[in-house]
Automatic annotation (TrEMBL):
Catalyzed reactions per annotation: 3'-dephospho-CoA + ATP = 2'-(5''-triphospho-alpha-D-ribosyl)-3'-dephospho-CoA + adenine
Keywords: ATP-binding, Nucleotide-binding, Transferase
Entry keyword annotation includes 4Fe-4S: no
Pfam families per UniProt: CitG
Molecular function via GO: ATP binding; triphosphoribosyl-dephospho-CoA synthase activity
EC number: 2.4.2.52
Official protein name in the record: 2-(5''-triphosphoribosyl)-3'-dephosphocoenzyme-A synthase
One annotated GO biological process: prosthetic group biosynthetic process
Native source species: Mangrovibacter plantisponsor
Gene3D superfamilies associated with the record: Triphosphoribosyl-dephospho-CoA protein
InterPro entries recorded: CitG (IPR002736), TriPribosyl-deP-CoA_syn (IPR017555)
Gene transcribed to yield this protein: mdcB
UniProt xrefs under NCBIfam families: malonate_mdcB (TIGR03132), PRK01237.1 (NF002315)
Top EC category: transferase
Function statement: Involved in the formation of 2-(5''-phosphoribosyl)-3'-dephosphocoenzyme-A, the prosthetic group of the acyl-carrier protein of the malonate decarboxylase.
Amino acid sequence: MKLQPQSSADAVAQRLAQTATRCLIDEARLSPKPGLVDSRGNGAHSDLSLSLMERSAHSLTPTFFALAQQCWRRPADVALRQLIGRLGREGEQSMMAATNGVNTHRGAIWALGLMVSSCAMLSGHATASAISEQAARLAQLPDPAAPTVFSKGLRASHRYRVPGAREEAAQGFPHVMKRGLPALLHSRAQGASEQHAMLDALMSIMTTLSDTCVLSRAGMVGLEAMQQGAGAVLKAGGCASHAGRQQLAELDQTMLGLNASPGGAADLLAATLFIDRVALPAS
Ligand SMILES: CC(C)(COP(=O)(O)OP(=O)(O)OC[C@H]1O[C@@H](n2cnc3c(N)ncnc32)[C@H](O[C@H]2O[C@H](COP(=O)(O)OP(=O)(O)OP(=O)(O)O)[C@@H](O)[C@H]2O)[C@@H]1O)[C@@H](O)C(=O)NCCC(=O)NCCS
Ligand SMILES: Nc1ncnc2[nH]cnc12
């Protein structure tokens, strides 16, 4: 989508929106990802494909743009949280319209929506910590207009007594800040290709995330297989090493066998890429 900037706020909003969409597309194309849609195929999904994920990502550019525009230099308060909630839900409707009702990116709209909003609140110039702290503040605020739905994620969180997407955001995205981003930077510094560094970031997120998509489809057995398998990839030397790639292929087979797909981890990889691309270096 071509957006015409009218002001510096619009120019920043355009940059943030286009970067967020790009991160969704780069995550979707990244291969080989265990159980997930990638450029090889549909993973464990019968209703998803790469072209659907890409169509969904493009449908979200106007949502990210609106979030950035509306949040420009505003403080975190309940009125703003309510506005972000409304724009996020409208984004979910755009996604559903673009995919004929398939849930491709609900978790990504949440994570990236909060990050785009936070970045705009901070004039588009902020460190990774400042962005994640601002996102946590927003996520902790109540949204009085939010519908009360006992979602799949909430059901899995209650049943297995684990944190889900809401807690991840309210805690300042620890799987982005303490897992994905450090792993991405470490692998790059070790000379890994961008593909391998991104896969290592995904593995690092998967080692500890309580991914409610995996829990809903494959229960605690699936979640433990995901966490242990991702840990084994990193322990073997990461995706730049032959041994690491062998472990990754095994993990892919395990996840497919369990019909499990770490959609939450994929969203947090996209959020990691977003922070990597927009945040100022820490001084
Ligand atoms: C806060 C919300 C995200 C709602 O969260 P909740 O947990 O209540 O509900 P869900 O509807 O289940 O969505 C959670 C999605 O978050 C991703 N996720 C899972 N675990 C985690 C985690 N530990 N940390 C972070 N994120 C996590 C995940 O999204 C991905 O998976 C989706 C595909 O799943 P899948 O199971 O394959 O598909 P389904 O069709 O549902 O099932 P099948 O039939 O195929 O089995 C895909 O969307 C990925 O993105 C979870 O699905 C949030 O939605 C909310 O409250 N929004 C309100 C609006 C708002 O305030 N917005 C503000 C910011 S814009
Ligand atoms: N690549 C992917 N495959 C399946 N579900 C996802 N949710 C977000 N990214 C995904």
